[in-house]
Amino acid sequence: MSATTETTAPAAAPLIDEYPNKVFVGNLSFKTTDGQLHDYFAEVGEVKEARIITRGPRSLGYGFVAFGDDATVQKAVELRNHTEFGGRQINVEAARPMPESAIAARAQHISGDAKPAGQRRARKPRARKEAARVDTAESSDTQKEEATEGSEAKPRSARRGGRRFGARRFPAKDKEESKTEDAEPKKVEPKKAERKPREKKPVDEDRTPSDTVVFVGNLPFSTTDEELAKLFGEFSIASAHVVVNKKSNRPKGFGFVTFANNAEQKKALDKLAAEPFQVSERVLTIKAALSETPAVTEGESA
Question: Among residues 296, 287, 295, 294, which one has the least CA distance to residue 210?
């Protein structure tokens, strides 16, 4: 008898969802790879697994990093949250555990254990409407009546019955009256006058440059009021704020800085015109803000 050797397939690597201690990493660059993510968090502690979430070959801009214990997870959040990685400020927070049912479903999908096509529920075929059949019995009866001796041919409008569907029920007089009504000329309604488009006023027609406020555009969406104020720390400023969306409270990418006086404003504009600010590979747009001119009343004009 020949000796037979049994070979066993190597165990599959565990999924990132199976690790209980992991962090969520958001706002990643789309060029970041699993290896780069692993190396960046390896300085914090031992990394079990690092995975970029993708849709096909394209990255979705976020991923997960698994550690051996919860203490390393908390350490990674403290040391890596809001840090610069791949040209972006990333967000790091402890990931919530995934339900066991979802993990099993994903593992089944990856391993290819989905139900074969034969076991799936078969769809019921749609009932097709059969074409309506026209009964020819009535037409044959009318032909027999016309063939009888001494019978005069009657016009179709005077015959009874007619077609099976949509039989004629109105006499010939009504038909002639309907023709005369259709022959009457129709009244032509006058065309409505076309409205002329309103003339749009230029946006900056009623605005003048402010003496103390400047507009700062092309800001990174993660910029805060404090960070905006630090950019102009060498000048004397009164306030600095980033404009946010009222509903979502998310920054819109621009803000305003108010200087102490007009001299400080001119000083800042002259310097930044020669040496523009650059934040996170973005060149900021800085110019004097526009303010609306107050309306002149009749007493003031006099």
Answer: 287
For 16-109, CATH number out of 3.30.70.330, 3.30.200.20, 3.30.470.20, 3.40.50.300 equals 3.30.70.330
Consecutive H or E run containing 230:
helix 225-231
DSSP single-letter state for residue 39:
H
Spatial separation of the C-alpha atoms in residues 267 and 81, rounded to whole Å: 36
Query: What angle (nearest 5°) sits at the alpha carbon of residue 36, between those of residues 30 and 38?
Result: 120
The token pair that represents 257 in the structure block: 């800085």
pLDDT, tens digit, 9 for 90 and up, residues 65-83: 999 999 999 999 999 999 9
For residue 246, what are the CA distances in angstroms to 2, 49, 57, 122, 162? Answer: 79, 39, 36, 50, 72
Residue-wise pLDDT tens digits, 160-192: 555 555 545 555 555 555 555 555 666 777 777
